[in-house]
Amino acid sequence: MATKILCCTPMPGYLRDSLAAEFDCHDYHFPSGALTIPKAALASIRGMAMTGEAQISAALLDQLPALEIISVFGAGYDGVPMEYCQARGIRVAHTPGLMTDDAADLVTALVLMTGRNLLRADAFARSGDWAKGSFPLSSTITGKRAGIFGLGRIGMAIAHRLVALGMQISYCARSPRPDLPWRFFPDLEELARDSDFLVMSCPGGAATRGIVGPRILQALGPEGILINAARGSVVDEAALIAALKGGTIRAAGLDVFACEPSIPPDLAALGNTVLLPHIASATRETREAMAALCRANLHNWFSGVAPVVLVPNAG
Ligand code: 8YV
C-alpha cells in the first residue's frame, strides 16, 4: 500500500502529480485549513509536502500522530514550526542550493529595473507619450553602493553579479568574512545608511520578522532603493508604503510579500515599485529540480535507500 502523505495545496501541478505517482496523496488546503481526508484517517499520514510559502500550524501537526517527515519544496522553511518538530522528532527536509543562480539573476534584474526606472519607461514607450517628449533621466548603476543583508549562497551570487555591474559591495552578516574584499557592517542600520541599494537576502522567520521598518528606511534615505526577494516577512509593509509615498526612500523592487498572494492595494498603486509574484526560483529548470528533490527526500526517507536533505538540527 502506498504511503499516505498530506500535500499542502496550492502547490504546482507538476509537483502534486509527481508525488501522486508514488504516494497516496491527500490535500490540506492552505490557508483555508480544509482537508480532503476524513479526520480519522489523519492518523495514518506519515509524510507531508509543502511549498516554501505555506504556513503549517502546530495545531495541524497535532492531528498527525504518525507524521515522520515534512518535505519543503523550497530552500526556506520558515513556514514550519521548527521547535515543535524538534520536540516531536519530525524530520524537516528542503531543497537548498538549486535556485541560487535564478534568485541572484532576479535580484540583479530588480536592481536594474528600479534603478533605471524600466517599468515606467516601458509604459511610456507603449503609451505614445514618447512623441510628446523624452523620458525622465534615471541614474547610473555603475559605482553605486549595494548593501547585501545576508551573505549565504544566494547573497554571494548576488554580490558577484552586482560586482559585474561595477557596483561597490558591502554586507551585513553574522560574522565578517576576511577572505572577501567587501566592506562588512555588523548592523543593518549602518549598512542601510551606507547603501544606495539595500538588498535583503536573509531567511524569514522570527529572527528577521519586520527588521526593515521605519528606522532602516530612514537610514536608506531619499535616494535609496530597497530590493527584497527573500521573504515578505522581513519588511514592515505599512512602513514601506509610507516611506515610498512620502519620499523617505526612492523605490522598491519586491518579489515577496507579507501575505502572498495578496499585495496591499496601496503598494500595488505606487509607481515607484517593481512588484513580482514570488518568481525568483520560477524557471522550468529550477522548479523541476526542486520538485525532484522534494519527492526524492520523501522517497529516500521512506525507503531508506539514500540520504535525505534535512534541515540541520531538525527532528
Ligand atoms: C519558492 C522559495 O517560491 O525556495 C524558497 O524558499 O521561496 C521559493 O523557491 C517556493 O518554495 C515554491 O513554491
List keywords for this structure.
315 residues, alpha/beta, Rossmann fold, 7-stranded parallel sheet, 33% helix, binds 2-keto-D-gluconic acid
Description of the structure:
The two termini are 26 Å apart. The chain has 11 helices and 13 strands. The model has no long low-confidence stretch (mean pLDDT 96). The chain has 315 residues and is of the alpha/beta class. Helix 1 packs parallel to helix 11 (284-303) and helix 4 crosses helix 6 (153-164). Bound molecules: 2-keto-D-gluconic acid.
Mean pLDDT: 96
Bound molecules: 2-keto-D-gluconic acid
User: Count of DSSP E strands?
Assistant: 13
Uncertain parts: none
| Beta-strand residue percentage | 15-25%
Determine the N-to-C terminus distance. 26 Å
CATH superfamily of the largest domain: NAD(P)-binding Rossmann-like Domain
Q: What is the domain tally?
A: 2
Query: What best-fitting shape do the alpha-carbon axes yield?
Result: elongated
Q: What is the fold named in CATH at topology level of the largest domain?
A: Rossmann fold
Which H/E pattern describes the elements? EHEEEHEHEHHEHEEHEHEHEHEH
The helix content, as a percent range, equals 25-40%
> Looking across the biggest beta sheet, what order are the strands in?
9-8-7-10-11-12-13
The CATH architecture designation of the largest domain is 3-Layer(aba) Sandwich
CATH class of the largest domain: Alpha Beta
Biggest sheet descriptor: 7 strands, parallel
Radius of gyration: 21 Å
List the total number of helices. 11
Q: What class do helices, strands and sheet pairing give?
A: alpha/beta
